[in-house]
Inverse folding.
């Protein structure tokens, strides 16, 4: 019986260690305008951004009203303009409507591209229509 108990304790410790290794990255940002992500609308406010590796998901939470959104992402090489070393939220804005399209996560070294739904308006934002907001550790 002692061997069984010891094996269970070791298995539990191994599972706990694996879950810690899969820990998510958490950052915070103040977004001063309304935006959407995956077709869901969000108000201006303070947001916590959490990226998990398994599955590849991004969780966005407004810290004032706790409205949340979840999006799957695809990891990509960091954009050239990420060289300032700061993590950022990247929005594309057209006709006053902004959409969260990327998260530049300098701590994990990834650019997190959020797949976009087809726009009813058509067309993609021009480079000058991109808005970047710096993320900070909570």
């Amino acid at each position: 019986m002692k061997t069984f108990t010891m094996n269970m304790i070791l298995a539990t410790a191994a599972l706990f260690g694996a879950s810690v290794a899969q820990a998510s990255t958490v950052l915070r940002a103040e977004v001063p305008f309304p935006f959407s992500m995956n077709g869901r609308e969000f108000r201006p406010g303070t947001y916590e951004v959490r990226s998990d590796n398994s599955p590849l998901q991004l969780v966005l939470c407004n810290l004032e009203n706790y409205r949340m959104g979840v999006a799957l992402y695809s990891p990509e090489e960091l954009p050239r303009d990420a060289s300032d070393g700061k993590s950022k939220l990247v929005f594309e804005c057209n006709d006053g409507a902004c959409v969260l399209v990327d998260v530049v996560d300098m701590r994990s070294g990834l650019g997190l591209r959020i797949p976009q739904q087809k726009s009813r308006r058509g067309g993609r934002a021009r480079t000058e229509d991109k808005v970047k907001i710096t993320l900070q550790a909570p």
